[in-house]
């Protein structure tokens, strides 16, 4: 792979990953996402170094002038709308795209990398989904490739400047400049093995990052950052109910919340109340009039019962993980049959900023800047106190005058013969189930009252029509009723929670008889779309992953750390635990094994390095010197051999030197000095004095030959 | 001792980029601790993990790297030379990237750096750096400092590798403007004895650096398995004896001018010796020393001995006598001298002008 092209490609991968992470947060409008994507992709194929006009000053001035104007405009808009966060994001993306179009030097690349990191940081502040972790892994790998190649490129351009040409006798004659283009176009610097090894390092880095994440102490100074994910616009669910819209209702699979069931038995469906409506007039419902009552939060806990107390027989019911929505409703499960008694917000929810209110119709609202909400709902097993009023307010019996007669006639014909309100309600529900059809294809109303057109002509519609019809028909036979907007989910994940999506938004009716509000769902059951089993399994798997991500990553706090530590200490003695604790236990155990494995690998690596270093105690340099000493000795012995002196098999060098001295040979003093050097080097670990040894050998060579041998 | 300590030391210093990254990490730590945002913690963990990985990869890159020095055969003071540096990567699988090598001369780092972009596993890469040693004498290149900023240029990891090379820098050979008149006129009058193909065959000896490759006797070389050169008898040879006054009183040894003057003397002596040897003269060198003198030199190949002696010539006090000129061998190898022997005394003179020889030249009968 050519070095320069590889560097460009991995740079774009890294930058694009960060931009995609920001886009996934939903903070950017669609037009900006498209514009930025096109700008980045187009800049890849544009080579600014070959454009002569970009080198001119006029171009530089006009570019900076334009950027300056755009920046000023964005800042002005941000100041006007007090939208500094959005303004900052726009500026960041503008700067990034401009840098990518003008990447000529290493400095331009470096600025683009810094920009991508700031974008990643921005996405971190507002992102809360599993995709963050997946893209973070990709960013880590791409960053390792990119930064490594960037470093090599920068070093090349700084170091490969001069080539020294040899002169005579090893002297340097002159030096010439080296162009690095040839090296940048070389295929021999990086290859697939380089990228594979770097990817493996990236994986190791990612795992180490997770380990550090678990171990870093959680100390919160309770200073909440002002950055939260933009609230999801709710599709399907609304805090307003108006009939008459037409078109095609789209299924939006986006997750709204996850509901973990803590009590047994497990219900087959999860119905969550959002907002209730009391008055119907001119095609739309409105809520019961009255003032909202603030609900006190003590230690993140609020009572939902009149009198604001917490029954002793409270039991955990469900745990709800609610995405930040535009709606203020606090979703609670419908009485089953006991109503919710209190709610406890988790540590991770920024409850310092939120406020709880209760409407006259019993609906609870959450207001204030918030991110993802995690709260537990309790119900009173003994139900010592009933939260329902003895009689329903008269508002729940009101009918529009123009509908009374026709509705009453229709209702009477259906409920004829029924004695009790329950029977009447069941008859009305049965009638709607049997004679009316559910459809997502909304017809355009021609009648000023769409509900009449639904009941008398169309006989098909979506849940709001059914709920409206049911509620009005009940009221026409003097049964107080109200419509409720919320969510109904039957999507159970084997990990132990219901998944609630936008498409599960639903309307139903609550009728008051027998001293309580009873849930009635007049909408005929629909067959859910069939997925391929493998796709369904994959979807469940990713939902489970996202749930774990939310629980164990986003909400990992001091208490979770302590709990993990406690779990490690009691791992070998599992005691009676609930299903939830077993899940925590399993997760803790898995984390423990990962930590142990990592620790073992680390220790093994340290031991291996230590042993290797011990084996290589003698640096190779010393061995090289030993071989030099051997060469000098061989030459000396060869010279002595010429003079007729052969070293005996059991004769040491000193003994040979003594023999030479005994025979008064001219070489004796020189050889004695050589022996001293050899011994000092061999046994005294003294570096060999090459100069002196050469001199002695040379002198030995120059000695006249022996006259007789 | 210091070098041994250094070779055990592994230095890690953050670069400028590394300081910025650590500062950003510090800010991120403060924000994460403050807010408790777990994704910020995750990002912080990733940054710390990247720093740790950078250190580990740098360490792996430096492992198994063995440097070697290849100095040129002959070095003269003040003359730029190329010092060859070879790096061998002894790792079996991993390549090393972005390695910088610095040489240590007399335990000080030479201000030249060699850069190796990539050293594949099991391979050797070579480069050189240009350097000038200002003075003659013995220089000890004791170790290498190998460093790398790979992979992210956040840290510079370095280590010292001991590799000792002793290099002798010969005195500078300067172009001479003046030669003793009598000697210069003698050049060309008599036969120019040289080693070569003319003259009677004298004998064979081993090849030395500097010998003309045309003088190699190939048959003998093949028989003896080492290079042998022919030596021709020369009819007559002029000889010259150089007396080099390397004395300097103790009180003058701190004076840089005096030292410079002495170096010039030695440089002149080397230049004269080289000239005469090239012209085929027999040269005897006598210096102030109590050691026996150098044996007479009579071929250009023995220039190295002369230069080596002059390179390592110490400064002595004036009371140290000159060496007695060694007798020229009368029998056997060298031919007898012709009539007359010129004695040249090279010693520091009062005149330090560049254009005039720095020395007094005596002519002797």
Written account of the structure:
- The complex is a heterodimer of chains A (709) and B (365).
- By secondary structure, chain A is α+β, with helices and mostly antiparallel strands.
- Helices cover 49% and strands 16% of the residues of chain A.
- Chain A is built from 19 helices and 24 strands.
- In chain A, helix 1 runs antiparallel to helix 2, helix 6 packs across helix 8 and helix 18 runs antiparallel to helix 19.
- Chain A starts with a helix and ends in a 7-residue tail after the last helix.
- Chain B is of the alpha+beta class and 365 residues long.
- The two termini of chain B are 56 Å apart.
- The C terminus of chain B is likely disordered.
- Chains A and B meet through helix 5, helix 6, helix 8, helix 16 and helix 19 of A and helix 2, helix 3, strand 5, strand 6 and strand 7 of B.
Search tags:
heterodimer; A: 709 residues; alpha+beta; seven-stranded antiparallel beta sheet; five-stranded antiparallel beta sheet; 24 strands; elongated; B: 365 residues; Immunoglobulin-like; 3 domains; six-stranded mixed beta sheet; three-stranded antiparallel beta sheet; 7 helices; 27% helix; 30% strand
List the helices and strands and how they pair.
The complex is a heterodimer of chains A (709) and B (365).
Chain A: H1 3-24, H2 30-44, H3 57-81, H4 84-101, H5 106-126, H6 130-159, E1 162-166, E2 172-177, H7 181-184, H8 192-215, E3 241-242, E4 247-248, E5 255-261, E6 270-277, E7 279-281, E8 284-286, E9 293-295, E10 301-303, E11 314-322, E12 332-333, E13 340-345, E14 355-358, E15 364-367, E16 373-380, H9 401-415, H10 421-435, E17 437-438, E18 441-442, H11 450-458, E19 460-461, H12 463-476, E20 481-489, E21 492-493, E22 497-501, E23 505-513, E24 516-520, H13 533-554, H14 558-569, H15 579-615, H16 620-642, H17 653-662, H18 668-684, H19 690-702
Parallel strand pairs in A: 17-19
Antiparallel strand pairs in A: 1-2, 3-8, 4-18, 5-11, 5-22, 6-12, 6-20, 7-8, 9-14, 10-13, 11-16, 13-16, 14-15, 20-23, 21-22, 23-24
Chain B: H1 2-8, E1 10-14, H2 16-35, H3 38-62, E2 65-70, E3 75-76, E4 81-89, E5 96-105, E6 108-119, E7 124-131, E8 137-148, E9 155-170, H4 181-186, E10 201-206, H5 218-224, E11 228-232, E12 239-244, H6 256-278, E13 282-287, H7 303-311, E14 342-346
Parallel strand pairs in B: 3-9, 12-13, 12-14
Antiparallel strand pairs in B: 1-9, 2-4, 4-7, 5-6, 5-8, 8-9, 10-11
């Amino acid at each position: 792979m050519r070095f320069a092209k590889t560097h460009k490609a991995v740079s774009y991968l890294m930058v694009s990953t960060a931009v995609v992470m920001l886009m996934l947060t939903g903070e950017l409008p669609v037009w900006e996402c498209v514009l930025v994507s096109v700008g980045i992709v187009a800049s890849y194929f544009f080579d600014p170094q070959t454009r002569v006009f970009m080198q001119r000053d006029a171009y530089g001035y006009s570019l900076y002038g334009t950027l300056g104007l755009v920046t000023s405009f964005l800042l002005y808009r941000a100041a006007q709308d007090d939208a500094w966060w959005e303004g900052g994001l726009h500026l960041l993306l503008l700067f990034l795209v401009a840098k990518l179009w003008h990447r000529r030097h290493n400095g331009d690349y470096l600025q683009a990398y810094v920009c991508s990191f700031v974008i990643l940081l921005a996405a971190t502040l507002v992102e809360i989904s599993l995709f963050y972790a997946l893209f973070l892994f990709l960013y880590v790998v791409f960053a390792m490739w990119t930064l490594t190649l960037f470093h090599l490129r920068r070093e090349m351009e700084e170091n490969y400047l001069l080539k020294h040409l040899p002169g005579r006798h090893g002297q340097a004659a002159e030096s010439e400049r080296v162009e690095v283009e040839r090296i940048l176009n070389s295929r021999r610097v990086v290859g697939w093995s380089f990228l594979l090894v770097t990817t493996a390092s990236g994986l190791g880095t990612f795992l180490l990052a997770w380990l550090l994440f678990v171990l870093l102490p959680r100390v919160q100074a309770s200073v909440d950052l002002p950055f939260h994910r933009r609230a999801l616009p709710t599709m399907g669910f609304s805090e307003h109910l108006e009939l008459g819209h037409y078109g095609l209702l789209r299924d939006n699979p986006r997750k709204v919340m996850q509901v973990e069931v803590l009590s047994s038995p497990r219900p087959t469906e999860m119905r969550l109340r959002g907002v209730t409506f009391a008055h119907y007039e001119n095609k739309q419902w409105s809520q019961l009039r009255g003032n909202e009552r603030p609900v006190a939060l003590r230690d993140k806990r609020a009572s939902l019962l009149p009198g604001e107390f917490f029954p002793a027989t409270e039991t955990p019911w469900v745990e709800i993980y609610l995405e930040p929505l535009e709606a203020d409703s606090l979703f609670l499960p419908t009485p089953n049959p006991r109503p919710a008694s209190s709610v406890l917000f988790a540590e991770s929810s920024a409850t310092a900023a939120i406020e709880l209110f209760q409407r006259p119709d019993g609906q609870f609202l959450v207001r204030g800047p918030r991110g993802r909400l995690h709260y537990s709902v309790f119900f009173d097993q003994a139900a010592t106190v009933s939260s329902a009023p003895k009689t329903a307010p008269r508002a729940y019996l009101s009918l529009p005058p123009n509908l009374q007669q026709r509705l009453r006639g229709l209702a009477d014909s259906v409920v004829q013969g029924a004695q009790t309100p329950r029977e009447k309600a069941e008859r009305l529900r049965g009638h709607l189930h049997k004679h009316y059809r559910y459809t997502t294809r909304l017809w355009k109303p021609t009648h000023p009252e769409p509900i009449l057109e639904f009941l008398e002509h169309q006989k098909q519609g979506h849940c709001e029509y059914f709920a409206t019809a049911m509620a009005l028909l009940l009221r026409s036979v003097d049964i107080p009723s109200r419509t409720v907007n919320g969510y109904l989910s039957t999507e159970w994940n084997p990990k132990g929670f219901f998944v609630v999506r936008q498409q599960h938004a639903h309307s139903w009716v609550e009728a008051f008889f027998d001293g309580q509000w009873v849930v009635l769902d007049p909408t005929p059951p629909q067959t859910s779309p069939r997925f391929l089993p493998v796709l369904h399994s994959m979807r469940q798997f990713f939902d489970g992953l996202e749930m774990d991500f939310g629980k164990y990553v986003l909400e990992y706090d001091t208490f979770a750390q302590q709990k993990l530590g406690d779990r490690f200490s009691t791992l070998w003695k599992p005691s009676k635990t609930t299903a939830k604790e077993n899940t925590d236990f399993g997760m803790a155990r898995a984390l423990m094994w990962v930590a142990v494995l990592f620790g073992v690998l680390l220790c093994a690596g340290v031991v291996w390095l230590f042993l290797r270093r011990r084996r290589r105690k003698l640096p190779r340099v010393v061995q090289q010197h030993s071989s030099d000493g051997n060469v000098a000795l061989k030459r000396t012995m060869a010279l002595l051999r010429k003079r007729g002196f052969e070293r005996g098999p059991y004769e040491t060098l000193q003994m040979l030197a003594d023999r030479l001295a005994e025979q008064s040979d001219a070489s004796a003093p020189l050889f004695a000095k050589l022996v001293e050097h050899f011994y000092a080097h061999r046994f005294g670990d003294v570096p060999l004095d090459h100069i002196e040894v050469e001199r002695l050998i040379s002198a030995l060579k120059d000695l006249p030959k022996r006259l007789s041998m | 001792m210091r070098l041994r300590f250094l070779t055990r030391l592994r230095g890690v210093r953050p670069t400028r980029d590394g300081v910025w990254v650590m500062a950003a990490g510090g800010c991120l730590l403060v924000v994460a601790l403050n807010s408790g945002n777990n994704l910020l913690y995750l990002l912080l963990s990733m940054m710390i993990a990247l720093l740790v990985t950078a250190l580990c990869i740098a360490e792996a890159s430096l492992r198994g790297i063995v440097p070697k020095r290849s100095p040129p055969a002959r070095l003269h003071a003040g003359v730029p030379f190329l010092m060859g540096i070879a790096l061998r990567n002894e790792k079996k699988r991993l390549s090393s990237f972005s390695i910088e090598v610095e040489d240590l001369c007399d335990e000080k780092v030479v201000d030249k750096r060699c850069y190796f972009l990539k050293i594949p596993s099991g391979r050797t890469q070579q480069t050189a750096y240009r350097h000038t040693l200002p003075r003659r004498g013995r220089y000890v290149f004791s170790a290498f400092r190998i460093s790398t900023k790979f992979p992210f240029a956040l840290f510079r990891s370095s280590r010292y590798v001991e590799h000792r090379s002793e290099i002798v820098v010969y005195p500078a050979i300067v172009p001479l403007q003046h030669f003793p008149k009598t000697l210069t006129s003698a050049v060309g009058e008599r036969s120019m004895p040289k080693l070569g193909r003319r003259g009677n065959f004298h004998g064979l000896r081993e090849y030395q650096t500097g010998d003309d490759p045309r003088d190699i006797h190939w048959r003998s070389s093949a028989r003896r398995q080492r290079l042998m050169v022919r030596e021709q008898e020369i009819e007559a040879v002029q000889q010259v004896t150089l007396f080099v006054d390397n004395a300097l009183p103790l009180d003058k040894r701190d004076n840089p001018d005096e030292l410079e003057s002495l170096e010039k003397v030695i440089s002149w002596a080397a230049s004269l010796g080289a000239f005469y040897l090239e012209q085929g003269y027999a040269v005897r060198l006598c210096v102030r020393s109590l050691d026996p003198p150098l044996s007479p030199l009579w071929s250009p190949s023995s220039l190295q001995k002369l230069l080596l002696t002059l390179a390592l010539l110490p400064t002595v006090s004036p009371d140290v006598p000159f060496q007695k000129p060694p007798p020229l061998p009368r029998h056997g190898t060298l031919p007898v001298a012709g009539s007359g022997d010129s004695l040249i005394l090279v010693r520091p003179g009062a005149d330090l002008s560049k254009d005039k020889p720095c020395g007094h030249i005596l002519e002797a009968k």
